[in-house]
């Protein structure tokens, strides 16, 4: 069967699609290279490579020409995905849970995007059959697909295979009390010794994610010159367009933004700098903020795997907290707190780095309508400490 293969080219970690003879599938590789040149996220390249590998497996099993497949073949591909790669006509002795609709749709999106690309660069017959043009409430056939001209005829192009979406659930969040437990487990200030006990580095990371709404990748990619202390002005951190292929980290959308922070967080960063000096870490303005202190090479950039190892151990120590929580829950908690505290939506949008306010409003539409959530914690008091209105 076709497989998705992880490869390293120089400093770049990427993925290719191989056939049964372990040869690179050239049409798929051409499209994936297009995504790389357009600076798509490595996670997107990986997802699309996985979807195309599944599609090429079906093509090889049925001995189909990728340029002359039909809508029925695409529908069969969707059925195959939902049945975890088996023939839907085969009865399984031990039925398993169906594949989530989001997983099926991710693979379909990869295949459809591949054929959209092929329709633009070459006259591939299959690309003509996978889309119809909707105009005035009716459907009309299209020749060559050209989505960037779809508005000219007063209609739009739609794919012929629909998608089944799982019901949109409210994003999970941590209460202020739960976030306090996580931070205190990392490190606490010992009054008797007059210093921090534990891993102050992770205490700083969790406090940063709680107070700024940064994604984990954005936090781990911060460098010291991105942290602007409050010397006469409001302290802030600057999220720079940046990526680290070795650690598989990337700032989403590769967009710059400035996020203001509280004096308490800025002071905690100062305490952390003293810890780095005491630990013998040699660092400069262009070095990463979060580095190895207890395992691995001292001073090397902190990897997300290390963070998740700590989370796994934390969950064993605190089984009563939500078992599924991840660092991204801090981001959801941040947005929830700001909205419940009455911070304007456009301010929250800029702070989170969403491209448009529609993303914010659709993701957190439930927040202002949920009275129980509003009463769950003193969100306004929490948000007032962050300087989010600056």
From TrEMBL:
Keyword field: DNA integration, DNA recombination, DNA-binding
GO molecular function: DNA binding
Gene Ontology biological process terms from the UniProt entry: DNA integration; DNA recombination
Signal sequence segment: none
PANTHER family per the UniProt record, alphabetical: INTEGRASE_RECOMBINASE PROTEIN MJ0367-RELATED, PHAGE INTEGRASE-RELATED
Family (UniProt): Belongs to the 'phage' integrase family.
Protein name per UniProt: Transposase/phage integrase
């Amino acid at each position: 069967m076709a497989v998705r293969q992880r490869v390293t080219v120089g400093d770049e970690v990427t993925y290719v699609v191989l056939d049964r003879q372990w040869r690179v599938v050239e049409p798929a590789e051409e499209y994936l290279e297009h995504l790389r040149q357009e600076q798509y996220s490595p996670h997107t390249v990986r997802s699309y490579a996985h979807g195309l590998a599944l599609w090429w497996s079906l093509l090889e099993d049925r001995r189909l020409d990728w340029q002359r497949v039909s809508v029925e073949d695409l529908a069969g591909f969707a059925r195959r995905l939902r049945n975890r790669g088996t023939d839907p006509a085969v009865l399984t002795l031990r039925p398993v849970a169906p594949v989530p609709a989001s997983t099926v749709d991710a693979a379909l999106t990869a295949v459809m995007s591949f054929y959209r690309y092929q329709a633009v660069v070459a006259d591939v017959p299959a690309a003509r059959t996978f889309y119809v043009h909707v105009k005035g409430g009716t459907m009309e056939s299209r020749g060559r697909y050209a989505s960037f001209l779809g508005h000219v005829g007063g209609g739009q192009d739609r794919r012929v295979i629909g998608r089944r979406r799982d019901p949109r659930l409210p994003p999970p969040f941590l209460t202020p009390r739960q976030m306090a437990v996580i931070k205190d487990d990392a490190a606490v200030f010992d009054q008797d010794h007059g210093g921090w006990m534990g891993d102050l580095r992770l205490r700083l990371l969790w406090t940063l994610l709680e107070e700024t709404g940064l994604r984990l990748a954005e936090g781990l990619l911060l460098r010291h010159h991105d942290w602007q202390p409050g010397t006469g002005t409001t302290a802030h951190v600057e999220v720079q367009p940046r990526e680290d292929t070795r650690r598989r980290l990337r700032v989403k959308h590769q967009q710059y933004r400035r996020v203001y922070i509280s004096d308490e967080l800025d002071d905690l960063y100062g305490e952390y700098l003293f810890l780095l000096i005491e630990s013998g870490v040699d660092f400069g303005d262009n070095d990463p903020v979060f580095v190895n202190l207890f395992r691995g090479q001292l001073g090397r950039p902190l990897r997300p795997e290390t963070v998740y190892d700590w989370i796994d151990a934390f969950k064993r120590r605190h089984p009563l907290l939500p078992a599924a929580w991840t660092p991204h829950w801090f981001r959801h908690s941040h947005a929830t707190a700001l909205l419940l505290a009455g911070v304007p939506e456009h301010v929250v949008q800029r702070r989170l780095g969403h491209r448009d306010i529609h993303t914010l409003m659709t993701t957190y539409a439930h927040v202002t309508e949920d009275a129980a959530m509003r009463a769950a914690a003193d969100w306004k008091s929490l948000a007032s400490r962050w300087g989010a209105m600056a």
